[in-house]
Design goal:
- By secondary structure, the chain is an alpha/beta fold.
- The chain has 13 helices and 14 strands.
- Strands 1-2-3-5-4-6-7-13-14 form a 9-stranded mixed β-sheet, sandwiched between helices.
- It is globular and about 60 Å long.
- It comes from Bradyrhizobium uaiense.
C-alpha cells in the first residue's frame, strides 16, 4: 500500500492544481484594485487567496539568486555555469566575472529532502574569498529509470569526479550528511595518489561516528530493522514524472516528518502570515513567504542511497570501525596525508552531536597534528554551523584562514 502512496498524493495535487492556480490569478488581480475604505476586507481576502495558492509543494529547484558579491573592496557580478554534469548532479560554478584568482573550493551539499539551494547563504559567504563550486543534486523524480541506480558509492564517485574536474590543489567542504562520502573520497584519492586529491578537507556537523552521544535522529535510525525503512518509507515515483517507477524516499514524506517535529511553530507561522497580509504588513509577510518557498521546495532521495546511508552510517557505523567498503576495497582514512583537515561542530546541534564529526581527527592518523584544526562553536544548533551570524562572523573566518594556509 505504501509504495502507491506517492502516486495517490500526486493525483490529488494534480486534481487540486486549478484551485491554486485560480487563487494565484485572483490574487494578482486583487493587487491591482485601488485600496480604499474596504482595505480590511481586501486584506483578509488577499490572505485567504495567498494561503490557498501556497498550499502545495514544488519539486523544482529554486534559484540561487546570487547576482553579485563583494570581494575585497570590489563588487563582482556572479554567473552560474555548469562545469560538468551527470544525470544525477551538476558541478555548478559560481563564477565571479573578471574576479581575482582565489582558492578553488568544492562545497558538498547534502542529498536530502531539500535542494542544494538551502546553502545559498553559505555559498555567498564563501564567494568573498574563494572560487566556489557546489554539488547541485538533481531530483530523482526527474531522472529516467534507464539512467540506473544511485547509491552511497555513486555519491562518493561523484565527489572524486567533481574534484577531478577542478584539478590539483582544490579544497573540499562537506556539510552534514556527505561528510562520510567526502572523507571516503579523500582517502581513496590519497591512496591512489590522485593528482586532484584535495589540498584540504573540512567536515561540518557530519555523522562520522554516530555512536558518540546519539541524538534522537540517530536513535530513530537504530530503532527499526532496515526492512522497516524499505517497507514503510520507500515509494515509486508517480507515472506523470520522467522518473516514473524509480524507487525513492519521497520529499513530501520527509517534509511531513520535518514539519511534525515543530508542528506548532509552523502553524503559528502561517497564522502570522495571514495576519501580516490582512494588515498590509508586506515586509513581514515576505520574510515568512521567502522561508517557506525554500522549505516547501522538496527533493526525493534515491531509495538505494537512503537505505545504504541509514544502514552503513547510522546503524552499522562502518567508517569508524574500519569496515566501510568502496567498489570492493576498504576505505582507509589513515591513507590521507599532505592534506589539511578541519572539523566543525555546534554546541547545541541536536542532529549531529558534539564528538561525532571530531571523530574524523582520530581516524586520519596520517595527517600531521599541525595540519589539523577543530572548532566547536558555542551557542549554535545544526544549521548555525553553516548559516547565520555565528557562521559569518566566527566560523567562516577560521575556515577561510585554514583554506588559505593549505593553498
Amino acid at each position: 500500500m505504501m509504495s502507491m502512496m506517492y502516486q495517490a498524493y500526486q493525483n490529488h495535487m494534480d486534481l487540486t492544481a486549478p484551485w491554486r492556480t485560480g487563487a494565484a490569478a485572483a490574487l494578482r488581480y486583487l493587487n491591482l484594485v485601488p485600496r480604499g475604505t474596504s482595505q480590511r476586507t481586501f486584506g483578509r481576502l488577499a490572505a485567504a487567496l495567498e494561503l490557498i495558492s501556497r498550499s502545495s509543494l514544488t519539486y523544482a529547484r529554486p534559484d540561487y539568486a546570487i547576482g553579485s558579491v563583494t570581494a575585497g573592496n570590489r563588487e563582482y557580478q556572479v554567473t552560474e555555469e555548469v562545469a560538468y554534469a551527470t544525470p544525477f548532479g551538476s558541478l555548478l560554478h559560481f563564477r565571479k566575472v573578471d574576479g581575482p584568482e582565489q582558492p578553488r573550493l568544492l562545497l558538498v551539499a547534502p542529498m536530502s529532502g531539500h535542494f542544494a539551494t538551502l546553502l545559498r547563504g553559505t555559498v555567498k559567504t564563501l564567494l568573498q574569498d574563494h572560487d566556489v563550486y557546489i554539488t547541485d543534486w538533481h531530483n530523482p523524480r526527474d531522472i529516467p529509470r534507464s539512467e540506473g541506480r544511485f547509491g552511497l558509492e555513486d555519491y562518493t564517485d561523484h565527489l572524486i569526479d567533481f574534484l577531478g574536474q577542478l584539478g590539483p590543489r582544490a579544497h573540499m567542504v562537506a556539510i552534514c550528511q556527505p561528510s562520510v562520502s567526502a572523507l571516503a573520497a579523500a582517502a581513496i584519492m590519497s591512496e591512489d595518489d590522485h593528482p586532484a586529491r584535495p589540498a584540504s578537507l573540512t567536515l561540518m556537523a557530519g555523522p562520522i561516528d554516530t555512536r558518540i552521544q546519539p541524538t534522537k535522529v540517530n536513535e530513530f535510525a537504530k530503532s527499526k530493522p532496515i526492512k522497516w525503512f524499505e517497507d514503510n518509507l520507500i515509494n515509486y515515483v508517480p507515472m506523470q514524472c520522467k522518473g516514473a517507477l524509480r524507487q525513492v524516499y519521497p520529499g513530501f514524506v520527509q517534509l511531513t516528518a520535518f514539519v511534525s517535529m515543530n508542528l506548532e511553530r509552523h502553524i503559528k507561522q502561517h497564522i502570522d502570515l495571514a495576519d501580516h497580509l490582512a494588515k498590509g504588513e508586506t515586509a513581514k509577510a515576505e520574510l515568512i513567504k521567502t522561508f517557506y518557498d525554500e522549505y516547501f521546495a522538496v527533493m526525493d532521495l534515491p531509495a538505494e542511497f537512503y537505505i545504504e546511508t541509514v544502514r552503513d552510517v547510522f546503524q552499522e557505523h562502518l567508517l569508524p570501525q574500519g569496515m566501510l567498503m568502496h567498489r570492493g576495497r576498504a576505505v582507509n582514512p589513515a591513507a590521507i596525508r599532505r592534506m589539511g583537515l578541519m572539523t566543525v561542530e555546534g554546541e547545541k546541534d541536536d542532529i549531529c552531536s558534539i564528538g561525532q564529526t571530531l571523530a574524523a581527527q582520530d581516524l586520519c592518523t596520517g595527517v600531521r597534528t599541525y595540519r589539523k584544526v577543530h572548532h566547536m562553536q558555542a551557542g549554535v544548533g545544526h544549521y548555525g554551523v553553516f548559516s547565520g551570524k555565528r557562521w559569518n562572523n566566527e566560523i567562516y573566518p577560521l575556515l577561510r584562514d585554514f583554506v588559505h594556509v593549505n593553498s
